[in-house]
């Protein structure tokens, strides 16, 4: 008996780098989960994830710095140092994205109903 989700045209090739559930009876470990990997895809996706996390932390630090400046908690020297540091971090992120063939929009993961991870402003 076929399931309501079966495709009448036959089984499709799973997407590379995706987790899929193996149907019962087609594998000795029936019902187990498998990860289909392509080394190039995995490397790019891992690089994208790491750069996304670094960009998220960079943006959080930048917001915290702006908040502290607005509150007047920082001296002029500290503001100057933070400004230069944040500019260098932003340049470094741009260089890393370029090196790995990623655009800034590639780092903004879609979290489904929650929206995107990074602000789009």
Q: Helix segment count?
A: 2
Any low-confidence stretches, pLDDT <50, length ≥5? Answer: 1-17
Which strands sit side by side, in order, in the main sheet? Answer: 1-2
How can the largest sheet be summarized? 2 strands, antiparallel
Mean of pLDDT: 75
Give the overall silhouette: elongated
* Alpha-beta content class: mainly alpha
Describe the structure in your own words.
The protein is mainly alpha-helical. Helix content is 47%, strand content 7%. It contains two helices and two strands, in the order E-E-H-H. Strands 1-2 form a two-stranded antiparallel sheet.
How would you summarize the topology of this molecule?
Blueprint: E1 18-21, E2 33-36, H1 39-71, H2 76-99
Antiparallel strand pairs: 1-2
Key phrases:
121 residues, mainly alpha, two-stranded antiparallel ribbon, 2 helices, elongated
Describe what is shown at a glance:
The protein has 121 residues and is mainly alpha-helical. It has helices at 39-71, 76-99; strands at 18-21, 33-36.
